Amino acid sequence: MPPSIHVLTLTIMAAATILPARAVGFDGVQIAAQGGKPMGIAMASAKAGEALAVVTHGTAVAESGAAITLGAALIVDSQGRLIPTTGGLHVASGATAVTSSAANGAILAGGDAPEFVVADALQAASGAGEFIEVLLRR
After folding, report:
1. For 14, which of 26, 97, 101, 125 is 20 to 30 Å away at the CA?
2. In whole angstroms, what is the distance from residue 59 CA to residue 112 CA?
3. What are the pLDDT digits (tens) for 37-85?
4. Is residue 7 within 8 Å of residue 58, measured between CB atoms?
5. Does a structural domain hold residue 94?
């Protein structure tokens, strides 16, 4: 496996079976919805009720769910693996006219985008099932 630099690793109790190098949610469950927001990446496997180390900051080894290019922005797939973003995160400047009088003032409110960008690829993957080093985002 590639090397990694863990800046912060938290120990949690797994609430369900979690596979190694997969994204883990704040609820202690492996992420099962594409674009979900994880706490971090599991360092090992765990069953419900077992302690699990989760890398939350720094670099981590993660399993790919698709082909990934070096430097790609990554989201989680429905199996907790990392995949490239689908491109639904940005609206080009001037692409959407704001015509509502209710939009005057604060147009954007807090919250997460529909696809939470988890990391950037420090290595490429030719397809699903490869283990690559990623730089976690927060």
Report:
1. 125
2. 22
3. 999 999 999 999 999 999 999 999 999 999 999 999 999 999 999 999 9
4. yes
5. no
